[in-house]
Amino acid sequence: MHVALDDRDIRMLQILATEGRIAKTELARRVNLSATPCGERLKRLEQCGLIRGYRTEVALARIAPHITVFVLVELEAHRADSFAVFERHIEGCEAITNAWALGGGFDYLLQVLARDIADYQRLIDGLLEARIGLERYFTYVMTKEVKSGPPPLELLLGQRPD
User: C-alpha angle 95/97/100, rounded to 5°?
Assistant: First the structure.
């Protein structure tokens, strides 16, 4: 379901997508509103599900060595119950940080964070042993992050950036 947004709502979402910790008074100033109406808009955006949460981007490499692995998965069977079994199982796998169902040749794309290749392989071995319908998987190790950013709201809404 789409939610009707005006230019201020869109600007607020753009600012929050890159500056989630911005003070509400500063957000209000940047969208040219007083604090109370800005707070009311923010609450509405949260309540209607447009803002799903606030996060911090953690510099993982400064905390501990790790690898990011993308895994393309193909299931043995393509039935609703097969997909449900697989999805329930991976929901409980903390190392799988993102998972997307795909249309086309593969069924899922998983993003995995692991300490090293051996740690990743233990995860895969566990998925295979769990008998959750995993037929084939293809592993792609990320060598460096080239780009990461907020969603291009203006582009998606057919608007031109300022």
Answer: 125
For residues 21 and 15, give the distance between their C-alpha atoms in angstroms, rounded to a whole number.
10
* pLDDT, average across residues 57-67: 91
Quote the tokens at residue 103.
């249309």
Please check whether the two domains, 7-56 and 60-141, share a CATH topology.
Answer: no
pLDDT digits (tens, 9 = 90+) for 25-57: 999 999 999 999 999 999 999 999 999 998 888
CA-nearest of 13, 20, 1, 17 to 44 is 13
Determine the 3-state secondary structure of 23 from DSSP: coil
| CATH of the domain spanning 60-141, picked from 3.30.420.40, 3.30.70.920, 3.30.390.30, 1.10.10.10 | 3.30.70.920
As a CATH number, domain 7-56 is: 1.10.10.10
Distance CA 138, CA 81 (A): 23
Report the percentage of the chain scoring pLDDT > 90: 79
Number of Cβ within 10 Å of residue 114's Cβ equals 19
Distance CA 133, CA 82 (A): 7
The residue type of 88 is R
Q: How many helices (H) and strands (E) does the chain have?
A: 6, 4
Give backbone dihedrals phi and psi of 19, rounded to 5 degrees, phi first.
Answer: -135, 65
